[in-house]
Amino acid sequence: MVLGILFLLVTILAVISVIRQLKIKNLFALAFSGISVLVFGFFSISTIISEIGII
Questions:
Q1: Positive or negative CA dihedral for 33, 34, 37, 38?
Q2: pLDDT digit string (tens) for 32-54?
Q3: Which distant-in-sequence residues (6+ apart) come within 8 Å of 29 by Cβ?
Q4: Interacting residues of 17 by C-beta distance below 8 A, sequence separation 6+
Q5: Which residues cross the membrane (predicted)?
Q6: Which residues contact 31 (CB under 8 A, 6 or more apart)?
Q7: Angle between helices 2-24 and 27-52 (to 10 degrees)
Q8: Is the distance from CB of 44 to CB of 22 less than 8 angstroms?
């Protein structure tokens, strides 16, 4: 459960980074931030779901 929460915190930080990079219009950093949001968001949700035991 702790791992899922840590992944969720990294996802929140990556979302903040996406917003900042949109303001700055840095497309290279925006791409990496967007990929980070997708990857860490997927792993955080899947880890939390597997720990709860729904699936």
A1: negative
A2: 999 999 999 999 999 999 999 87
A3: 17, 21
A4: 29, 33, 36
A5: 27-49
A6: none
A7: 160
A8: no
pTM: 0.87
Closest CA to 15 of 1, 46, 6, 35: 35
Question: CA 47, CA 19: separation in Å to the nearest integer?
Answer: 25
Neighbours of 51 (CB within 10 A): 13
The owner of tokens 């980074």 is 17
Cα separation of 32 and 43, whole Å? 16
